[in-house]
Amino acid sequence: QVQLVDSGGGLVQPGGSLRLSCAASGRAFSGLHMAWIRQAPGKGREVVAAISSSGVTYYRDAVKGRFTISRDNTKNTVSLLMSSLKPEDTAAYYCAGSSASVYDVLAAMEFSSYPYWGQGTHVTVSS
Fold it and tell me: Which residue among 32, 61, 66, 103 is least packed, with the fewest CB closer than 10 Å?
């Protein structure tokens, strides 16, 4: 059993920054591929950033250069640093994980690849 707890959401002004954090328990964190998935009304579920168990990162084009995903295997945590935030970034953000043996760019950027999800944390970008 894998348990994920995400946190750090809140209200931020356009152009501002915010850091989301996710803590994992119940399984060795170093063996998981991790991602941040967001869902906004009318937008569906989309993987915005992912990082493999070996540290390879992937980003959705809309956030590349603005968001940075990182992991700390000594603390069993994954983070998402969001900068230059835009109103269209407003969404519920979920930490997600996968223990799949096969993990490439196609799998990394597909939300259905991740069986383990956190409870979600809301991010609102507004003036």
Answer: 61
Closest CA to 34 of 74, 73, 88, 85: 73
CA distance 93 to 85: 14
Number of H helices, E strands in the chain: 1, 11
Task: Give me the mean pLDDT over the 44-63 stretch.
Answer: 97
Largest Cα–Cα distance of the chain, in whole Å? Answer: 43
- Whether 107 shows a pLDDT value over 80: the answer reads yes
Q: Per residue in 22-48, is it b (16+ CB within 10 Å) or e — as a string?
A: bbbeebebeebbbbbbbeeeeeebbbb
